[in-house]
Design brief:
about 240 residues, mainly alpha, 10 helices
C-alpha cells in the first residue's frame, strides 16, 4: 500500500519530541500571530530559525520529495496572485516565504507530536473546567489529526494508481479532477470505516480518563525563548 511520510508522526528522541504538546501549540500560535502582517525581514528570521530546528531534529525534508509538490504549486499560485494584484517583489516574496514557513511549522509539529499525546494534553487541561467534556474533546482532536495522514495517503495512492494506468493529465482535465476527487474521498471513507471498526474492537471510550504529560524545563525554556525572541525581533525590525 502506498503511504506518504508528510504530516505523519515519526518516533524520535529529539528535544522537540520530548516537549509537551501544549507548549508546541503555544509556540505555533505565537509564531503564526507574529507572521501575520509581518515584514520580509521578520519572516526570513523565523524561517531561518525553523530551518535550524528542522536540521537539529534531522527532519527528512528531502525525503518528502514529490509530496511537497502540492505546497510548491500553492506557493506559486499565491505569489502569482500577489504579483498580478500589483504587489511589489518584496510583498510577493513575503507572501510566498510566509506560506512556506507555516507549512514547515505544520510539518515540524506533525512529525514530532503523536495524536494520542495531543489528546492526553488537551483532555487533561480541559477536564479541570466544570461541565466541559475535556477527554471527549481531546479524543475528537486525536481522531481529526489521525484523519489528515489518511487523506494524504489516499490522494497519493490514487495518483500513483492513475499514473500506472497511463492516464494523461491533460485528457479531459475537468472530468479527471472530478473523478480523482470523488475517488479520493471514497477511499478516505473506506479507511475511516476501517479505523472506526478498529476502535470499536478495542472498546475505545472517548470519555476515558488518560494520564497527561507534565510540563518540563525544556517546555518553559522553549516557550520563554520564543516569546522573548518574538518581542526582541518586533522591537528591532
Amino acid at each position: 500500500m502506498v503511504e506518504v511520510r508528510l504530516f505523519h508522526y515519526h518516533e524520535g528522541n529529539t528535544f522537540l519530541h520530548r516537549m509537551h504538546p501544549l507548549s508546541k501549540i503555544m509556540i505555533l500560535l505565537v509564531l503564526s500571530f507574529f507572521l501575520t502582517g509581518s515584514s520580509l525581514v521578520r519572516t526570513v528570521v523565523v524561517a531561518v530559525v525553523l530551518s535550524g530546528v528542522a536540521c537539529t531534529i534531522r527532519l527528512p525534508i528531502t525525503g518528502y520529495g514529490r509530496e511537497l509538490r502540492f505546497f510548491f504549486v500553492m506557493a506559486m499560485i499565491i505569489g502569482s496572485a500577489r504579483a498580478m494584484g500589483g504587489a511589489s517583489l518584496v510583498d510577493v516574496l513575503e507572501a510566498v516565504l510566509g506560506f512556506a514557513t507555516i507549512v514547515v511549522m505544520g510539518i515540524l509539529f506533525a512529525d514530532s507530536t503523536a495524536p494520542d499525546d495531543v489528546a492526553r494534553a488537551v483532555g487533561a487541561l480541559l477536564s479541570h473546567i466544570p461541565k466541559v467534556p475535556g477527554y471527549r474533546i481531546g479524543a475528537t482532536i486525536e481522531l481529526t489529526l489521525a484523519t489528515i495522514p489518511l487523506l494524504f495517503d489516499a490522494a497519493w495512492q490514487i495518483s500513483i494508481a492513475r499514473k500506472a494506468r497511463g492516464e494523461s493529465v491533460w485528457h479531459h482535465p475537468m472530468r479527471r479532477i472530478v473523478a480523482y476527487t470523488s475517488t479520493v474521498f471514497a477511499l478516505l471513507l473506506e479507511r475511516a470505516e476501517i479505523l472506526e471498526a478498529a476502535l470499536q474492537s478495542r472498546l475505545y471510550d472517548p470519555d476515558a480518563k488518560r494520564a497527561g504529560k507534565r510540563l518540563g524545563m525544556i517546555d518553559m525554556l522553549s516557550v520563554g525563548s520564543t516569546i522573548v525572541g518574538v518581542l526582541t525581533l518586533g522591537l528591532f525590525t
